[in-house]
Please model this.
Amino acid sequence: MNFKVKVNSNIEFNISQEDLLKLDAIKISESKYHILHDNKSFHSEITHTDINSKSYEVTVNKNHYSVNIFNALDLLIKDLGFSIGTSKHINFIKAPMPGLILEINVKPGQIVHENETLLILEAMKMENVLTSPRDGVVKSISTKKGDTVDKGTLLIEFEK
Model:
């Protein structure tokens, strides 16, 4: 699993699963960590977390950073041309990749709000939570729990 990390909106780098396994970090409390890297000691704290936007405020040795972390699904969705600006007009949710439907959290006629969990798709051994791109009403669901879907398969349709 690889992650793309963006720091202070201008520095980007990739972190691999191997990089994470090599990380020498000790959890001090729920939000504080002690990290050793290249024989240097770093005291870090996650001071703010926004899971929906995948943004974090982090302090490392009294320096403050804004950090965004994106996984493979986030990058795929971006590559497919979806963005916050265009997502408000989306009337369909299609499978971004092939996978297995693990859970469906909504039903036809249900009112949903932006960022509300719609379903969970297992793909590449990861559970991917697909959330609503906008407030709306679920018109139809074209799949069921346990279904295997291909990339581009219609999953959920919203009323217009």
Observations:
- The two ends are 36 Å apart (CA to CA).
- The mean pLDDT is 87.
- The chain is about 10% helix and 50% strand.
